[in-house]
Amino acid sequence: MTDTIDEKQTPFARNPRHFGIDPGEPWPDDVPMDQDDTRWRYQGDPKGAKKAERRIAAAWTVTLLASIGLAAVYVDGANNQLAGLCWGLAFGGLGVGLILWARDLMPGHDVIASRGHHNVSSEADRIAVAESLGRGLDPMARRPFLLKMLGAVGGVFGLAIAFPIASLGPRPHRNLYQTAWGKGVRAVTQDGTPIRPSELPVNGILTVFPETNPSDALSPTLLINLGDADYDTPPERVGWNIPIDGKTGIVAISKICTHAGCPASLYNVVTHQLVCPCHYSTFDVLHLCQPIFGPASRGLPQLPIAVDAQGFIVAQADYSRAGGAPVGPGFWNRG
Ligand code: FES
After folding, report:
1. 91 burial class (0-12, 13-18, 19+ CB within 10 angstroms)?
2. What is the CATH number of the domain that holds 292?
3. Ligand 1 centre and the CA of 87: distance in Å?
4. Which of the residue ranges 4-13, 86-95, 235-244, 308-317 would you say has the lowest mean pLDDT?
5. How confident is the model at residue 133 (pLDDT cuts 50, 70, 90)?
6. Are residue 69 and residue 101 in the same domain, yes or no?
7. pLDDT tens column, 162-173
8. Which atom of ligand 1 is nearest to the CA of 264?
9. 147 and 186: one domain?
10. Is the residue at 1 inside a domain?
11. Mapped to the 3 state alphabet, what secondary structure does 262-293 carry?
């Protein structure tokens, strides 16, 4: 004779749906009938449950104090070791508290359920799954103290972890658009010597910096004497070079590769191409320094230059102020 739910009731009036069995269906032999999916560690032991709550609260208090400590460390100058310690304690306390809650105050037993039928779940099964998830939340709702404490700890911890945003440094504002070049700023070598056009031979190449701020990271510039090479000058760039003997003469090109910022400085005097040694982006100097090979998608900007009253090479303006493209990599490629 077949067992049915009426004939073979589970102990404690368990809901058969919790075990994947439809009411009225025969109870499968491979699903133990004495399983209890509602039991938790301190069930029937209020004192033990209270102690468990206190242990969890202690763990989260560690998180709370560590979060406050984390904020204080950042305000005080962000000592890395101390900040790391606070991070560790904050996350550790939070994790330990959650683990203890799950272990001691919530049902946490393995349950064997029926595989059921291998077709689309019935409406009743879906309701049973939703009920099952709901039953997981009930034990949490029964602990208002822990829930409130978790909310407070989460709030303070959430505020504390916002402090590292300060480590990102000051906002760039317009700095990414500007270099230290400007109208009348002399081009100097690494040792601060200003340059006269006659000092750069044909096919010569020289790295120069703005005299006013030689260490500015975006300013390194290449002076290239193109001699009589046929330089492609669009109308807006007429007058940006220093002609020599009526020929193209000297042009100034940003040395910062537009791919990832390496110095693009390997110059081929035969092809008039500049190669960046990092990923081999190759720029055609005679044609607006546009990339012709490699990952760079944007040409190297040109700096408009002139000669001052003393005969030294100076900038006519900053790169972007002159209507040219801003200097530098990636950022400018996004939209
Ligand atoms: S940085 Fe120049 S090619 Fe990548």
Report:
1. middle
2. 2.102.10.10
3. 37
4. 4-13
5. confident
6. yes
7. 877 767 777 777
8. 2
9. no
10. no
11. CECCEEECCCCEEECCCCCCEEECCCCCEEEE
Q: DSSP code of 260?
A: T
Which of 222, 255, 273, 279 to probe ligand 1 with, by most ligand atoms within 8 A of CB? 279
Token output for 271: 């092809």
Please give the model's pTM, rounded to 2 decimal places.
0.56
Give the position, in ligand 1's atom list, of the atom nearest the Cα of 295: 3
Same domain, 28 and 110: yes
- Residue 160: domain span: 11-168
- In-domain check, residue 4: no
Cα 294 to ligand 1 centroid, rounded to whole Å: 8
Cα–Cα distance between 83 and 232 in angstroms, integer?
A: 56
Ligand 1: lining residues by beta carbon, under 6 Å? 257, 259-262, 264, 276, 278-279, 281, 294-296
Same domain flag for 218 and 78: no
Amino acid identity at 307: V
> Are residues 265 and 329 both part of a single domain?
yes
> Could you give the 3-state DSSP secondary structure of residue 163?
helix
The residue whose C-alpha atom lies closest to atom 4 belonging to ligand 1 is 279
Residues 231 and 326 in one domain: yes
- The answer to whether the CB of 204 falls within 8 A of the CB of 313 is no
Give Cα 191 distance to the centre of its chain: 38
Amino acid at 251: V
Into how many domains does the chain fold?
2
* Distance between Cα 235 and ligand 1 center (Å): 29
Asked if residue 207 and residue 152 are part of one domain, the reply reads no
Q: From the CB of residue 85, how many other CB atoms can be counted at a distance below 10 Å? A: 15
In 3D space, the residue among 318, 276, 277, 314 whose CA is nearest the CA of residue 301 turns out to be 318
Residue 6 lies in a domain: no
